Amino acid sequence: MDTQAIVKELKLERARLDKAIAALEETDSPAPRTSSRSVTTSAKSTKRGDRLTPEGRKRLSEALKKRWAEKKKAARKGK
User: Helix count (H) and strand count (E) of the chain?
Assistant: First the structure.
């Protein structure tokens, strides 16, 4: 690829980035102030990994292992 083609591609990319930045700036508004109560609830909602109990996690693991074993078995039959 020659230098002129590279420059042309970079200019196209810059134009795409300028459009994206402009779109984001249009929607950019100052964040509303939150009370300490809502901050603590939002902090809890970001903790997503604690929803399964250890027993539930084990059941899910076993079900997935069974599912993949059945898929593997079906794939062998199809060959």
Answer: 3, 0
Instruction: Tokens for 59, please give them.
Output: 């059941």
Total residue count of the chain as it appears in this document? 79
pTM: 0.36
Residue type, 22: A
Average pLDDT in the chain: 81
Q: Alpha helix (H) ranges present in the chain?
A: 3-27, 36-45, 54-78
- What's the rounded mean pLDDT across residues 63-77? 92
**Residue 37 identity:** R
Instruction: Enumerate the domain spans of the chain.
Output: 54-79
- As given in the structure block, the two tokens for residue 21 are 């930045």
5: left (phi over 0), alpha (psi -120 to 50) or beta: alpha
